[in-house]
From TrEMBL:
Membrane topology value: Single-pass type I membrane protein
Domain of life (superkingdom): Eukaryota
Residue ranges occupied by any Disease resistance R13L4/SHOC-2-like LRR domain in the UniProt entry: 243-433
Name of this protein: Receptor-like protein EIX1
InterPro entries reported in the protein's UniProt record: Leu-rich_rpt, Leu-rich_rpt_typical-subtyp, LRR_dom_sf, LRR_N_plant-typ, LRR_R13L4/SHOC2-like, RLP23-like
Keywords from the UniProt entry: Cell membrane, Glycoprotein, Leucine-rich repeat, Membrane, Repeat, Signal, Transmembrane, Transmembrane helix
Annotated Pfam families: LRR_1, LRR_14, LRR_8, LRRNT_2
Amino acid sequence: MDGSTHFSVFLLVAIILHCSSSKTVNATCYASEKQALMDFKKDLKDPHGRLSSWIHDVDCCKWEGVVCSNRSGRVIQLHLQSPDPEIYVVAEGDEFFWSLRSLRYLDLSGAGFQGMVPYQLGNLSSLRTLSIGGHRFDLQVDNLQWLAGLSNLEHLDMSGVDLSTASNWLEVINTIPSLVEIHLSSCQLDLSSHHLGRDTFVFHANFSSLTVLDLSRNFLGHLIPRWIFGLTALASLDLSENWFEGPLSRDLWNLTSLKYLDLSFNHLNGSLPNELIHLNNLISLNLQENHLNGPIPSTVGNCTKLEYLSLNDNALSGSIPSNLGKLSSLQLWNVSHNKLTGTLPKSLGQLFKLEELIIFDNLMEGVVSESHLDNLTALRYFDASGNSLTLKVSASWTPRVQFEVLGLSSWKLGPQFPTWIRSQKFLQYLNLSFTGILDTIPPWFFNSSLDIVDLSHNQIHGKSSIAILS
Ligand SMILES: *[C@@H]1O[C@H](CO)[C@@H](O)[C@H](O)[C@H]1NC(C)=O
Ligand SMILES: *[C@@H]1O[C@H](CO)[C@@H](O)[C@H](O)[C@H]1NC(C)=O
Ligand SMILES: *[C@@H]1O[C@H](CO)[C@@H](O)[C@H](O)[C@H]1NC(C)=O
Ligand SMILES: *[C@@H]1O[C@H](CO)[C@@H](O)[C@H](O)[C@H]1NC(C)=O
Ligand SMILES: *[C@@H]1O[C@H](CO)[C@@H](O)[C@H](O)[C@H]1NC(C)=O
Ligand SMILES: *[C@@H]1O[C@H](CO)[C@@H](O)[C@H](O)[C@H]1NC(C)=O
Ligand SMILES: *[C@@H]1O[C@H](CO)[C@@H](O)[C@H](O)[C@H]1NC(C)=O
Ligand SMILES: *[C@@H]1O[C@H](CO)[C@@H](O)[C@H](O)[C@H]1NC(C)=O
Ligand SMILES: *[C@@H]1O[C@H](CO)[C@@H](O)[C@H](O)[C@H]1NC(C)=O
Ligand SMILES: *[C@@H]1O[C@H](CO)[C@@H](O)[C@H](O)[C@H]1NC(C)=O
Ligand SMILES: CC(=O)N[C@H]1CO[C@H](CO)[C@@H](O)[C@@H]1O
């Protein structure tokens, strides 16, 4: 786009105003800025009257979604983001961007902009936050050079914007060392065809204060670009849904500040090494849907801040390390669809905060007793179907745990119908198929809160041999 041509791209803007309660008390707005906003409004369709407070007689610092600086009176924030992409307004403007040079915060996310992102945004040199992400690929940028004008930028979110032809995105971003957060999810970034090509391995990232990096749903090549591992301040890294393959890079263990790591839905293989111990600030680790194999390293138990651990849909083998019982903050553990063997370690009984334990479709066998389950008082979702475990509990067992979802398909439970189910007041889903029950259904069972029951492939006689009630 020629910088000298009059800017005439149509912008479709959906507007819901998130009004800030923190209005300035004394600031009155600048006439030029009020005029720019009035002109902007003129070009908007606002069927729901969300800009009804934008009237000439009112100080524009008091308008919905507008925040002025208390000191200078300049408009510094515009909150025009929309959670509802169905509402559209149309804008066209150039003066708008030029007049609001003091703007520090611009959030138009989900607002349904359409066409080329206006390069005039680069004139808003005071911006600290720029959020223009969309949910569709209605917006694109063919050259991101203008972004270099935002030399104070800290938070950048262009998720959902088509950057497939903006081949300079990485170099441009690298001229802004003030960046703290980058969200470029679903931008059709393709580093494999990038002219840096293999050189992304020697590329040095200048934005060394970065704490949040989201490059999920792109194609950054088959190996995680090495420069990412140099960002040692990172607290959150999302590289899910790329096409990374091969083993986890040793350099990953340099990112010791990480709290959130998401490498799910890639093609990573090899084992989860002991070096996981270095990431002991992790709160959430998501490695689901990869090709990881080998045992779960016992050092996972040293990552004691973990609350969410998703390892499902890999090829992990061996038994569950007893160290896992040290994850006293763990709330969710999903390791379904793997090749784990052995039984549940007793130490699992120490996971007082565990709410969801999902281990279905593994190769586990052995005995599970009361003591495994009695301390898991927070547990409400337990799906362990598709294992050959044996539940051995006394006939009088009244578990303290109250399940909502309980899947024990293919466990050895029979021949008696398990009486302890009677204590379950909130059970909605129960799967006891293939469990060797040879009994009648006790009458109390029909009084339960259950929505879905699977008792198929047992020898249940009497009242009816129902398979699924719902
Ligand atoms: C302006 O001052 C008010 C009152 O002290 C405060 O609540 C508000 O956060 C300030 N606004 C900005 C943008 O700093
Ligand atoms: C508003 O202006 C008055 C008079 O100048 C001053 O006394 C008061 O502290 C100001 N209030 C704020 C919140 O700045
Ligand atoms: C990165 O930083 C170095 C040193 O601060 C500087 O020389 C270089 O020009 C910067 N690179 C870019 C692309 O701005
Ligand atoms: C990770 O740390 C090791 C050891 O300190 C170092 O040799 C390596 O270069 C670092 N990797 C990156 C990508 O910075
Ligand atoms: C891991 O994947 C790479 C690339 O897809 C392949 O060459 C290698 O043989 C795989 N290694 C293992 C242990 O599966
Ligand atoms: C990791 O956990 C093991 C087993 O509890 C313990 O002996 C070891 O000291 C821990 N290592 C670190 C670095 O905390
Ligand atoms: C657990 O993993 C299964 C796939 O194996 C997936 O369908 C399910 O959504 C996951 N549940 C949670 C809560 O992560
Ligand atoms: C259950 O909790 C009690 C009290 O905290 C503790 O003494 C016991 O060892 C725990 N049982 C298991 C199997 O962890
Ligand atoms: C089922 O519930 C009803 C009403 O709460 C109660 O009267 C009846 O005794 C219960 N039947 C069984 C078998 O528990
Ligand atoms: C019960 O578990 C088996 C084995 O995992 C599964 O095939 C079946 O669909 C489940 N039944 C229901 C109702 O979810
Ligand atoms: C007044 C001003 O600085 N306008 C600039 C806005 O941005 C475009 C594109 O970067 C420049 O060409 C203008 O000079």
